[in-house]
Write a structure and sequence with these properties.
Layout: H1 13-27, E1 35-36, H2 39-46, H3 50-62, E2 66-69, E3 73-76, H4 81-106, H5 110-127
Antiparallel strand pairs: 1-3, 2-3
């Protein structure tokens, strides 16, 4: 498992760890039941504090991506990946509906909205 930490980003290190592990799970690189490196091991390999990795693991556990058992370690959760994606899709729809309402009432054309979404989506992909 390769985690790349950038000190040039505005994103906190624990969020970089969290988002990269989430991407590995969502892409299928990590499967349900796969072990995740111990907090100490990962902290040592990416040269960050154990507390930083602990924060990332707590967030991953809270969001249902990993399960941690004392004495055994952390593993990719068997939580349904499709269910998580469906929840995220609902959030995206809600935000897009609000953006569309604002655009309608402000006279902003659909083409402009598509251009803006393309820029935001592309920038977000490069930052993760």
């Amino acid at each position: 498992m390769e985690i790349i930490i950038s000190t040039n980003r505005n994103k906190p290190i624990y969020e970089q760890i969290t988002s990269q592990i989430k991407e590995m799970i969502m892409s299928g690189e990590l499967q349900a039941g796969d072990p995740i490196p111990s907090m100490r091991s990962l902290a040592k390999s990416i040269q960050v504090s154990v507390i930083t990795v602990q924060k990332a693991y707590e967030d991953l556990q809270r969001d249902g991506f990993i399960d941690t058992t004392v004495g055994r370690g952390s593993f990719v959760s068997a939580t349904n990946k499709d269910m998580f994606q469906e929840e995220q899709l609902k959030k995206v729809e809600e935000h897009l509906m609000k953006a569309a309402e604002i655009a309608h009432t402000s006279g902003i054309k659909l083409e402009k909205m598509v251009d803006m979404l393309t820029v935001f989506y592309t920038e977000g992909k490069n930052e993760s």
